[in-house]
Automatic annotation (TrEMBL):
<dbReference type="InterPro" id="IPR035985">
    <property type="entry name" value="Ubiquitin-activating_enz"/>
</dbReference>
<dbReference type="InterPro" id="IPR000594">
    <property type="entry name" value="ThiF_NAD_FAD-bd"/>
</dbReference>
<dbReference type="GO" id="GO:0008641">
    <property type="term" value="F:ubiquitin-like modifier activating enzyme activity"/>
</dbReference>
<dbReference type="GO" id="GO:0016779">
    <property type="term" value="F:nucleotidyltransferase activity"/>
</dbReference>
<feature type="domain" description="THIF-type NAD/FAD binding fold">
    <location>
        <begin position="50"/>
        <end position="275"/>
    </location>
</feature>
<dbReference type="GO" id="GO:0061504">
    <property type="term" value="P:cyclic threonylcarbamoyladenosine biosynthetic process"/>
</dbReference>
<dbReference type="GO" id="GO:0061503">
    <property type="term" value="F:tRNA threonylcarbamoyladenosine dehydratase"/>
</dbReference>
<keyword id="KW-0548">Nucleotidyltransferase</keyword>
<keyword id="KW-0808">Transferase</keyword>
<protein>
    <submittedName>
        <fullName>Molybdopterin/thiamine biosynthesis adenylyltransferase</fullName>
    </submittedName>
</protein>
<dbReference type="Pfam" id="PF00899">
    <property type="entry name" value="ThiF"/>
</dbReference>
<dbReference type="InterPro" id="IPR045886">
    <property type="entry name" value="ThiF/MoeB/HesA"/>
</dbReference>
Length: 280
């Protein structure tokens, strides 16, 4: 490995390693792009693609993100944007879980969808997209529906789980599974002009509080549908929460629910309980 580190330092411009050098190193040393990215970050250098992160995420933080595994449950409206942003942020391992295939009504809002992808598994499109935008990131596609009986297997090894589902019943199963496994859950939901999100830490019952009045049905998305912009807004806020959780920085959205009304451009905070908002 010392030869690799020497090569990288010789080919760095300052502390930045260009993508072309990363590719050349992978070919020369017969390693994957992910292995080369790890070597770059472990050397205290920075892949040039992340240079605009550096005022927000340190090089050590970038290595921490790269070593992290995040599970995204749902690859539709919210999930497509979440996966895109996690990959561009530099989260090294993403598990994409969704049993569905693209249909024509997905085209108005789902980032991973296109006319050419109609009928294709959403997780397959997710893997292809991540391979295009950041080949150093490993996306594991899982074409299965999340359920209580397979949840532990699907979420194994994840440091954070992102809820991008459209079923309240399954969301509650996901929340219970995350709580039992000691994994933080970043929840988001959308419908029409509206959205909300919250972060549930292990031991909390955040989603049970949010949906305490729910009895049946999928939620307001079935009534209001979704335009293109609502999932992009809520997904971006979810990714910000994931980043804080992985880096142990900032103030988390725990013990409170953020509600967003894009029609009136109002954001409100609903207090759920008193909580320590420091990242775990």
């Amino acid at each position: 490995m010392s030869d690799i580190h020497t090569f990288l330092k010789e080919h760095a411009s300052g502390d930045l390693v260009a993508w072309s050098a990363q590719q050349e190193a992978a070919e020369r040393f017969n390693l994957t792009l992910a292995q080369i990215e790890a070597a770059i970050l472990e050397s205290g250098l920075l892949p040039a693609r992340y240079q605009r992160n550096r005022q927000t995420v340190s090089t050590a933080g970038q290595l921490q993100l790269f070593r992290s595994r995040v599970a995204v449950i749902g690859c539709g409206g919210l999930g497509g944007y979440v996966i895109e942003e996690l990959a561009r942020l530099g989260v090294g391992q993403i598990v994409a879980i969704d049993p569905d295939r693209f249909e024509e009504h997905n085209l108005n809002r789902q980032l991973l969808s296109s006319p050419a992808a109609l009928g294709e598994a959403k997780v397959t499109a997710a893997a292809r997209r991540v391979g295009e935008i950041n080949p150093a990131v490993q996306l594991t596609p899982v074409e299965k529906a999340f359920a209580a009986d397979n949840g532990r297997e699907l979420l194994a090894g994840a440091r954070v789980v992102v809820d991008a589902l459209d079923s309240i019943a399954v969301r509650l199963e996901l929340a219970d599974t995350c709580s039992a496994m000691g994994i933080p859950l970043v929840h988001g939901a959308i419908g029409g002009w509206y959205g909300h999100l919250a972060t549930q830490l292990p031991g909390d019952d955040t989603l049970r509080q949010i949906y305490r009045s729910w009895s049946s049905g999928k939620g307001i998305e079935q009534q209001y549908g979704n335009p293109s912009f609502t999932p992009a807004v809520v997904a971006s806020l979810q990714v910000a929460e994931v980043c804080k959780l992985l880096l142990g920085q900032g103030e988390l959205l725990t013990g409170r629910q953020l509600t967003i009304d894009l029609l009136t451009m109002e954001i409100h905070e609903i207090q759920l309980r008193k909580a320590d908002r420091s990242p775990a």
